[in-house]
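Dear support,

I submitted the protein below through the web form. The confirmation email said the job was done, but the results page showed an empty box. After a refresh the structure appeared. I'm attaching both so you can tell me whether what I see now is the final result or a partial one.
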Amino acid sequence: HCAHRGGDMWPLLQALSLAPPSALSRLPAATPRYLRAPGVRLSLDASALSAVGEVEDAAPAPDLRLVAPAKVNLFLRVVGKRPDGFHELASLFQTVSLFDDLDFWTSPREEGAPLASLEVTPDSLGAELIPTDESNLVVRALSLYAERVPSSPAIHCRLHKRIPAQGGLGGGSSDAATALHAANRLAGLPVSQETLIEWAGELGSDCGFFLSAGTAYCTGRGELVDPRRPLPPTACYLIKPAAGLSTPSVFKALGLEPGEAGPAGADPADLLSRFEAGDVYNPDLYVNDLEPPAFELMPELRQMCDDLRKFGFQAVMMSGSGTTCFAIGMPLEEVQETWVDELQAKYDVEVFEEMFCRRIADEPSLWYTEQPPGAVLTNIEEPERGLFPL
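What the results page shows now:
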């Protein structure tokens, strides 16, 4: 129940990611139930707050510490398959509060020394499968920036991974966008946000989106980013099956030929306007043309989404090419304490309790979870009483 002073409401999870640990014990007793449901993994806890707090590490303190959010596709229409073999998409992307952590250190450029390097923390999710060479998007992003901004320093990054791979959550793309933002910030912000988005599009279809404020209408392969006004804070549960699906396999199962139009259905422009009108709990707006082929490849996904609807969530859909599904809003009161256990007894899944999150749109130097110095979080039920200064 937090708001940024000035009336601009922020999700409580974002607020917690900025709060000093000593303040966590002073949260109001009316903390929402969805932050206290048993059996649900919160991606942010007192030990994982990346914006503040002490880090017990033998390495020197990083020059910059940032988080990289996951994303969901609130709708995803496949407009058609282009002659070049890529699919033309129209999708509303939204960041959510499941974060990877990235630490950055700078050093002077030296002849023969790499301009970009990466390490992965041993306790990262899937650490043994994460490459640290040029095949990693973080290294590619830092190298691209170093090549195009010769005055920038060499950068080493340490990545702590929490966002599951092959889940349709955009974790790798988000890490790359975060690395581009970090490189630009550490160089003194010489490159505009618009140019950074263009460079990000060279790294991957989803990368440019994360350089928006957290809500964007994306077209083309996903690389054409139209930043939109942030959507209201909304509870969003992520349900990630242990099994994954590769994006190429899902598009192949869709079965479009070059030049062929995509499935018939709702006009993306109409879906966008209705979301922007605040209709975020309308299940009819959650359309994903990749659900049918993904359900064909993994039928249990369809059954799992049906079960989530029976729990009473306002909207349920698969994100992107899967396999992560998300549930919007809250379950029925009678199952709030039991639905996670019921779901995990039937499916091999992990559940993350998150919310929509965003950047401050008019502060391009700030990243996700960051606020201007001196910002004060307030209890929106008692706006005259500040919880704590940042």
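Response: this is the final, complete result; the empty box was a page-load delay. Residues 152 and 186 are 8 Å apart (CA to CA).
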